[in-house]
Design brief:
Radius of gyration: 27 Å
Bound molecules: beta-D-glucopyranose
Strand content: 15-25%
Shape: globular
Largest sheet: 6 strands, mixed
Strand order of the largest sheet: 11-16-15-14-12-13
Structural class: alpha/beta
Amino acid sequence: MPTMTCYRDPASPIEERVEDLLRQMTIEEKIGQTQQLSTKEDVQAEIGALASEGMLGSLVLAGTALAGNNSNNNIRHDLLNNIQRLAVEHSRLGIPLIFGRDVIHGHRTVFPIPLAQAASFDPQVVENACRWAAYEASADGVHWTFAPMVDISRDSRWGRTAESYGEDPYLSGVMGVAAVGGFQGENPAADGCILACAKHFVGYGAAEGGRDYNTAEISDNTLRNIYLPPFKDCCDAGVATIMSGFCDINGEAVSGSHYLLTQILRHEWGWDGFVVSDWASVGQLAEHGMAEDAADAARIGFNAGVDMDMSADVYRKHLRKLIESGRVSEDRLNEAVRRILSAKFRKGLFEHPYIDIEKSHAAMRSPVALADAERAAARGFVLLKNKDNALPLSKESRVGIGGPMLDDRRTLLGCWTLDGDPQETTNFREAWDEIAPEMVVARFNPALVDQSLLQICNTRADTIVLFLGEDQAMTGEDNAVVSLDLAPGQVELARAAKQWGKKVVAIVQCGRALVLTNLEPWCDAILVCWHAGSQTAPAVVKTLLGEYRPSGRLPVTFPRHTGQLPLHYNYKPTGRHYGKGGVRDTDFRSSLERYNDCPGQPLYPFGFGLGYGQIQMENVRIESSPKTVAALEAGEPVVLAVDLINTGDRADETVPQVYVRDCVSETTRPVRELKAFRRIAVDAGQRRTERFELNARAFGYYGRNGSWRVDPGRFLLSVAAHSGTPFQLEITLEQDGVSVS
Ligand code: BGC
């Protein structure tokens, strides 16, 4: 048994504990810390042996390399406690293993997919969802989650759009920070907290054609201004770990990129957590053709800055020889181990290594968690159309409910649901039957138009509510699509119902932007509910009845046609920003009008969403503004204000969004960028003023040579309902008191 030394003393500072432990470790034990293996059946015996010899750092609690596409993958408490016991009580130094798992959007209580959480435009929703996820997962023995994913998703063909916070770096950063706070809490060692991991550093979402794992070409300018900022935000918020991605960007696979993993992450940002590879992404450097073999891959990945290898087993097998031959330095090994041990101490693992099995059962799916999951689901719903106030439905409506998703349970939970159980999940049919059975006059579930729908339309119902959209299996890892269209038959259902003169309400489930161009004309109302977790169905039914007010906003642009992709609101201006008719606009919208066979504008822009009420945004104004760049940088903010007036007869919520355009800059800048937003409730008849303070970050960018700068000159500003709203305001910042305009 180990003796009590400083590293075992929780009262000693973490740095001292780390140094004390490091001093006592052999090279093999150090290398062991850098290795993570999976809990695949075939390696369990080996894991036990390695744990008891102190030759293993971590386990990823996943049965396959595609954990997000598998279910029934439940955690085995006895197995984990046994393996941990070998590490803690049998190994020479008793260093606990750290157990990581993909707890992406809830654990046993499943919260909305991250894209749906982002649609809430409410960081509190994200923080709360992650807090519950951490609470349940930690009771199940998870110390560390591989979330949040802050990859920017500009192309919804990519299946992992569902796991992201969408296309915008600012929104993704705000939500990423909220997630880190929710998972880690003030102190990750506290009960109910786990370590977070910002992933997949970086550029993974830019895969060519949306094809998962594919090459990304991202200019340094776009990398620094679009893809890196949400990661930097997570680092600044104290995220404990970062995952290095699979993809090749700009000619280097990320997991072998010293530039990204050391130059930017360590030297420029000064971040001190540890980097874990994505599943076998270090070993795969050989497949990328950057390494000769597995040993060479280990050398490149480790020297580039990947501190822990997930499941390729290349560090355990090759680092010793690489160190002996001088191709990897012992200093680099010490650096990686220091970071890993710091995280283990930070998590309080030495004090609490085991799962309390009794407590675990009691922690799952509490009524409070389920109620929070329902509210979170409702807050992310986006109302895209509501002709003549088709919604909310009156209790007197005679409703026919149907469509291919009526009885589905699994899809409601979304991708990356390792621990949620579809059998515990209420589907739409059951939710209606529980909440408002008296309204439902008919039910049908075929995916294609058939006699049942026609009969319902012919006789009984005045309103047809159709549950449409995409199956969760179309989303997540390695689930790219070439078309964002609805599956065959879905539009036809809406058309058939409309042709009978019914009010048609489409509830669209999805994990990405879909093309709803053909559906839209046949619907009176369209509500996007994403894959919103355990409580999706009751949240939808209550929203249709007006108990919840839909006030989510789109975190991704919904195109008219898949062929427009990639399509995002923050595109760059072109030199020919006039439309095909030669009409030049000041808002750079015409530069999208380049197709002969389709309008270029999106069907629904980023940030778009309606409510049941009528809140007007008026009197957008600048309340104060610094004169110079220097004053802005010294802390004097630009203050914008907007009046929100609820002219309707019901309380409602809205999301004023602040967009900025830098008109003249050293490098080209996007036509507009989101810089602030806030979700605001306004009572019927009420008027309120909201103020937004924009600091230097809202006006600066990374210019040539990757350096941060704020340029003097003109800026356009708006406080708007969505990204498709024209700018209303303008300021000019002078350089050191000298006017440049
Ligand atoms: C995914 C990661 C995930 C890891 C562990 C990989 O295939 O890309 O997002 O965290 O597996 O399951």
